[in-house]
Write a structure and sequence with these properties.
- It is a single chain.
- Helix 3 (72-93) crosses helix 9 (155-177) and helix 7 (128-144) packs antiparallel against helix 9 (155-177).
- By secondary structure, the chain is mainly alpha-helical.
- The chain has one domain (15-263).
- The protein has eleven helices and no strands.
- The longest helix is centred in the last third of the chain and has 43 residues, at 221-263.
- It is a multi-pass membrane protein.
- This is Putative membrane protein.
Length: 273
């Protein structure tokens, strides 16, 4: 049974897969070149962000080109975690939109990009609960309807699912981390609640897959259970990383609030342990 992502075991990657991998690696090269340009003109840009973007791009390229070990569903789930969770978080931590805005000079292109980022549509797309529904809801549709089986027989469906998993993962990571400049900066309560809800829905889905395969598929029971456990525990790891980003932001915001309060001669809010 072919995989829902990547290419069937024992076959060479097709032209579309090679093109997608080349596009990802080109994006990594463009990011690194833009970061180097910033540093040459004397601007600061942390090298950790270069590493994040490079690692995210490598994860995407590997998911497209490599066939992971294990049964078909286990291999598919490894690719799902790479494309839909790990790579999006790494790419968002690299702050690519911020880098693009800083490298673009004043002009029409930069104004248009800012207009898109500050638009009402962009503000609602990164509304954390909506981003969570688009991300986790899409997975429920994929695994609890015949859609996964259809991806094995229809290349266009396969490509559309692949694109959705990546785009939804990027949108959710962007909405939760809130690192790049956007018009509406949803608060910590919205983002943490969305993360908790998405994590719970992801865990429940993994547990259902442990017992019942996706409709129309015939994965062996051992393969299904291994893949479901990968989804459960791998999802937990990525969600803990997202929670760590939120914790760092809360701590930094509390510190800034205390500093402002001291400057104005009034006591700041107490820090929580």
């Amino acid at each position: 049974m072919p995989l829902a992502h990547g290419h069937p075991a024992g076959s060479a990657p097709g032209p579309a897969v090679l093109l997608a991998a080349a596009a990802v690696l080109s994006a990594v090269a463009a990011y690194l070149a833009a970061a180097a340009r910033l540093r040459r003109r004397g601007d600061a840009w942390p090298r950790a962000r270069d590493a994040f973007f490079g690692a995210g791009g490598t994860a995407l390229a590997a998911a497209a080109l490599a066939v992971p070990p294990g049964g078909a569903f286990t291999a598919h789930m490894l690719q799902h975690l790479a494309v839909g969770m790990v790579a999006p978080l790494l790419l968002v931590l690299a702050r690519p939109l911020t880098l693009l805005l800083r490298t673009l000079g004043p002009g029409r292109t930069r104004r248009r990009l800012l207009a898109v980022l500050h638009s009402r549509a962009a503000a609602w797309l990164v509304f954390p609960p909506l981003a969570a529904v688009l991300d986790i809801g899409g997975l429920w549709v994929l695994y609890r309807t015949p859609l996964l089986a259809a991806t094995h027989h229809h290349p266009l469906v396969h490509a559309a699912v692949h694109a959705h998993v990546l785009a939804a993962g990027l949108l959710f990571s962007l909405a939760v981390c809130r690192l790049d400049p956007l018009r509406r900066r949803w608060g910590l309560a919205w983002r943490s609640t969305a993360l908790l809800g998405a994590g719970a829905a992801h865990a429940v889905l993994a547990k259902t897959l442990y017992a019942v395969p996706p409709p129309g598929t015939g994965f062996p029971a051992a393969d299904l259970r291994t893949g479901a456990k990968l989804m459960y525990y791998g999802g937990d790891l990525v969600e803990v990383a997202l929670a760590a980003v939120l914790a760092v932001q809360w701590y930094a915001a509390a510190g800034r609030a205390q500093a402002r309060a001291r400057r104005h001669g009034r006591p700041g809010p107490p820090r929580r342990p």
